[in-house]
Design goal:
Helices cover 54% and strands 7% of the residues. The chain is mostly helical and 327 residues long. The chain has two domains: 3-181 and 294-322, HUPs (Rossmann fold), CATH 3.40.50.620; 210-287, Tyrosyl-Transfer RNA Synthetase, CATH 1.10.240.10. The protein has a three-stranded parallel beta sheet with strand order 1-2-3. A two-stranded parallel sheet has the order 4-5. Helix 7 crosses helix 8 (148-165). The chain binds tryptophanyl-5'AMP (TYM). Tryptophanyl-5'AMP binds at residues 5-9, 17-18, 20-22, 40, 43, 129, 132-133, 141, 143-144, 146-147, 150, 181-183, 192-193.
Length: 327
């Protein structure tokens, strides 16, 4: 059975962008693939975090995975930092990665520009991500478009390692949606919707209450026309709302265009808000039930045992290939 794997950083409240770009894809694949989803807490600390907040978020994101529909019977679910072999694998990969290729990563360039005192971890971040992906011989990595380059460097590193030391890794591929690969900021629809955005009105969080969802959707930036059709270049705001609505209502974009022919933006926005409120309130009810249950701990215990075993096996193989053996 082919393998799919993804991870999300517990660095803020998850947004509908995270849901659409990665969680929803995993849910759609879980019946047909050997599926792995984890909390990327080691990636979170590449930027400063408050320990108490981080700890709380790890549990929240775990509960959200399951509340969203990630089935614990069909997925191996774990917390990255509990798998001690991942940083070991990452180190061996780091020594087989060029400084030049790591420093060319777009996210590294953007994030390092924001703070002159950035950590070395920000540079090696994609190599840690390569370790996450490669230990498992992952076939597909469902992500948003912003992570495509990181999956590609994982593939390059794996390929180089195979050529240098002999066949060791399977080469992974990113899995990116045609529509919804980059859900846009509600206030500035030329930018990506982000969980770390400073303006709380620019994103819908999975745990936002209905009143907030309605307010944010009604205030989303659109354009001065009045026609509801998909044109990401000329109408980025409306196109973004069409994409979001299409994912959450399971209607195609062209069906939505037909449904709202001749209607105004207000009517369309009210519909988008209704669809979102309905789906997110289902998720929120399940989330509340899960957050303090022992079920989460049991799921992670089971998940980490399996992930650790597989990572240990790959680490031993890599060490062997690289000559890191006493006799
Ligand atoms: P992170 O936590 O930034 O984002 C989690 C996932 O959400 C996707 N995403 C979006 N998709 C569509 N529209 C958006 N506006 C949007 N915003 C975020 C991201 O592309 C991502 O898929 N480095 C990763 C975590 C990670 C990982 C991995 C992922 C660590 N190791 C191994 C896959 C495989 C990250 O920071 O994602």
């Amino acid at each position: 059975m082919q393998k799919v794997l993804t991870g999300l950083q517990p660095t803020g409240e998850l947004t509908i962008g995270n849901y659409i770009g990665s969680i929803k894809q995993m849910i759609e694949l879980q019946n047909d693939y050997d599926s792995y989803i984890f909390i990327a807490d080691l990636h979170a600390i590449t930027l400063p975090q408050q320990p108490e907040v981080l700890k709380k978020r790890i549990r929240e994101v775990l509960a959200l995975y399951i509340a969203c529909g990630i089935d614990p019977e069909k997925n191996t679910i774990y917390v990255q930092s509990e798998n001690e072999y991942i940083p070991c694998i990452s180190w061996l990969l780091e020594c087989n990665t060029y400084y030049g290729e790591a420093s060319r990563m777009i996210q590294f360039k953007e994030k390092s520009k924001k703070n002159a005192n950035f950590s070395v971890g920000l540079l090696t971040y994609p190599i840690l991500m390569a370790a996450d992906i490669l230990y498992l011989d992952t076939d597909y990595v469902p992500v948003g478009i912003d992570q495509k380059q990181h999956v590609e460097i994982a593939r390059d590193i794996a390929d180089r390692f195979n050529k240098t030391y002999g066949e060791t890794f399977h080469l992974p591929q990113p899995l990116i949606r045609n529509s919804g690969a980059k859900i846009k900021d509600l206030k500035d629809p030329t930018k990506k919707m982000s969980k770390s955005s400073e303006n709380p009105n620019s994103s819908i969080r999975l745990l936002d209450p209905p009143e907030k969802i309605r307010k944010k959707i009604m205030a989303a930036t659109t354009d001065s026309e009045s026609s509801i059709h998909y044109d990401p270049e000329k109408k980025p705001g409306i196109s973004n709302l069409l994409t979001i609505c299409s994912v959450f209502s399971n209607q195609s974009i062209s069906d939505l265009e037909n449904q709202f022919k001749g209607k105004n933006y207000g009517e369309f926005k009210r519909y988008v808000a209704d669809v979102l409120c309905e789906k997110l309130s289902e998720i929120q009810t399940k989330y509340e039930q899960l957050l303090n249950s022992n079920q989460l701990d049991e799921i992670c215990e089971k998940g980490i045992q399996k992930a650790r075993e597989l990572a240990k096996e790959k680490y031993e193989l890599m060490k062997d290939k690289m000559g890191l053996i006493r006799k």
